[in-house]
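Wed. Picked up where I left off yesterday with Ig-like domain-containing protein. The coffee machine is broken again, so keeping this brief.
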Amino acid sequence: MYSKCFIKYPTAALNVLWWKVNSSTLLTTNNRTNTGDKRFQARLKDENTNHWLLRIKYTKPSDAGVYECRIEGDFEASIFVFLHLQKATAVIQGSVPDGTRLVEVGTTLRLSCFLVNSIESPKYIFWYKENRMINYDLDDGESIREGRQGSELIFPTARLSHTGNYSCVPSNADQANLYVKVQTKVKRKC
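Structure written out below (tokens, as returned):
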């Protein structure tokens, strides 16, 4: 997560300080981190435009709140940034309220997982059946397609043995779960 601070009239004799307002914690002064929490880093993005960035690595709920970028030197000014964090979550497309998807034997079974509230692509997305990772244990034409913000588990021909609990587990979001029940005939609602 990055917060920006732009100084319109730069001078050589100034300091840029980042504070977490509700805790009165001085996080950084110029490029130096002042807190013991090394997740916080400030850097000058561009000397010509004098854009300063505060980076918070591996954000957690307690990082939410108001941050102040304070300029001290020939003149003083502040800008305030409110950081609202949303938890990234995975969703299996077509999930139903009771968490069960009915599939007919012999049809194609597609489980499409995508991320909600994620600002970056996951490093990986693993699929599990009954708490056992199956990404590297597929057979009979089964496959996984990876996309920038999701993954799709495909069974070209659904079998009774495909019945079970499936989980989509991304590296950077909460997992999604779905129970798949493969049966010989699926009653269609009109």
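Quick read: The CA atoms of residues 93 and 130 lie 19 Å apart.
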